[in-house]
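Supplementary Methods, section 5.1.

A reviewer requested that the exact input to the structure prediction be made available. We therefore reproduce it here, unchanged from the version used in the analyses.
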Amino acid sequence: MFRPGQPRLGYVPIWLPLSAFALGALLLTAGVAVGVQYGRHRLLTSGLPVPTPGSSGLVRGLGWPELVAAFAALLVLAAIGIVLFGAYQNYRAVTETFERVKSLMRNILESIPTGVLTLDAGGAVTSLNGPGERLLGLRASAIRGRPVSEALQSAPDLTAWVLGALAGDRLLQEHDFALTEEGSRRVTVRASASDLRDESGQTDGLVVLLRDITEVSRLEAQLRRSDTLAALGTLAAGVAHEVKNPLHALGLNLHLLQAELAPGPPSGNAVGGYLDVLRSELQRLDRIVENFLRFSKPSVPEIKPVDIAALVERVLGLVAFEAAGHGIAIETRLDPDLTRIPGDEGQLSQLFLNVMINALQAMPTGGSLGVATRRDGDWAEVTVRDTGPGIAEDVLPHVFDPYFTTRPTGVGLGLPIAHRIVQGHDGSIDVESQLGSGTTMIIRLPSGGSGRRREER
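The structure derived from this sequence is encoded token-by-token as follows.
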């Protein structure tokens, strides 16, 4: 496998053969010079005439100047040859490295399970890997160079999304599409896009990643169904428990009323008492059913500008009497810069009322209720803090579960209804609590946007 720092195979540093040749040429020149001098010496000692550099004949080139010039020319030619040879070696090494990199990148793109579609700045398809071919049911060779609007005609929704991303819509998030894979199998594909940049950092096109999430979607749907069934089971158990008690009281009082009426003329006070109990229990049943319906099918919020500070003050006025009766002091810290937010005034009133009543019920012997508002970027944050006993760590994950309550007389729908209202406003509600340190509810709601009617989702 190729690594950036790996030595290039077949590469020989140019100075090595050049130095070897220069040393060999020098040794050869020295040997020839020594041989020539030795020959001249033999001629002198034997009395024969010694050839001079200017004499004619084959020995003319044996003079020192001619000899040095000849070998210098030979050395230059050899150096040029070695340079060319080294350049060829380098070119071959670079070419081999480039081919290995191309092969590596091709193998990576073909090995990953994610489809990769690339477009140039003009929206023409430049490449599509194997997984992308299978997900789109297309051949890269058939769509390469074609505009994406033509290449992806079989997936118009994906085409429109890709064109939006290519046009520079940076608000685009991951999006899921239903496509027909090779073999006519329907698959769910999650697409994401990012800029394709050149060496200088300039946008040169678009990279679209396509992930097959068919199995993930199936498991998520199965999990949602399981959660729904579990929630229905919890709701059914809670409703059965809550309805059973008033039904028992109704039956008992009807039995007593029947016993009172059987012997003779009934006592007015006794009959009146029994009827009061029956009426009270019927009202209790009505409240249980109403809360159940409110939780199971919340109404669609009517989004309008709401004065959040005035709304919080009004809800505090509703709980002030109960707080004073339990010796609870109310402390407020409202942000004057946080005025109007988009929301359903009636539902938000119910939200804050449920949370504040829950806080008051946590302090039956008195304490302090703190309510604060502040703006946090694009969010309006409302915190409701009590100085009650706090919530145990193992109980915290269940505070928003329907019909979950730690109070003997509690119904367990106040906080779940509050949670539903917050979800309907695209907000969040969190709980922070420690035993002995009280509890803080943190409600975050979008603070921007214009009034509109929210559609059913």
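The CA atoms of residues 175 and 191 lie 5 Å apart. These observations are discussed further in the main text.
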